[in-house]
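Aim 2 progress update. The chain analyzed this quarter is reproduced below.
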Amino acid sequence: MAIVAADVQVPTGEIDGALFYPSTAAPDISTRLSAYIAQGYSKATLAGIEDTDAQDNIARIYTYYRAWSDVVNRLTMTPASSQLEGEGSVTMLQTQIEQWILARDRYADDLAVLLPDDNKSKAQPQRTRSVPTRFCF
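Predicted structure tokens:
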């Protein structure tokens, strides 16, 4: 049974569209997640995995990996603190970002276990780390 975007979104899955993609319309979130699912199936096929349950699992985990990566990228590109006159202020601590990175890496590790060793270089997503930066204006 092939998974669809609804399978990875709350309440069935782990992705809460409002939390992961706060300024994106629901249909656009589903389109993005559907593309990630398709990429996950493609990677499973490339790795020579024929079992449909295993393909579904890889597609699901790959989609979670990409969604968590999206959040990590957004948080690391957002200023650590900002203040708007009359609007208040917000601060994102590096430790908060690191929790998202750990969750993302957990999915990458799961993929490393599920994909055969000889195909990992072709099928496993690239893992990146962000370097904290401070911008002063």
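Residues 52-76 form the longest helix (25 residues). The radius of gyration is 17 Å. These observations will guide the mutagenesis experiments scheduled for the next reporting period.
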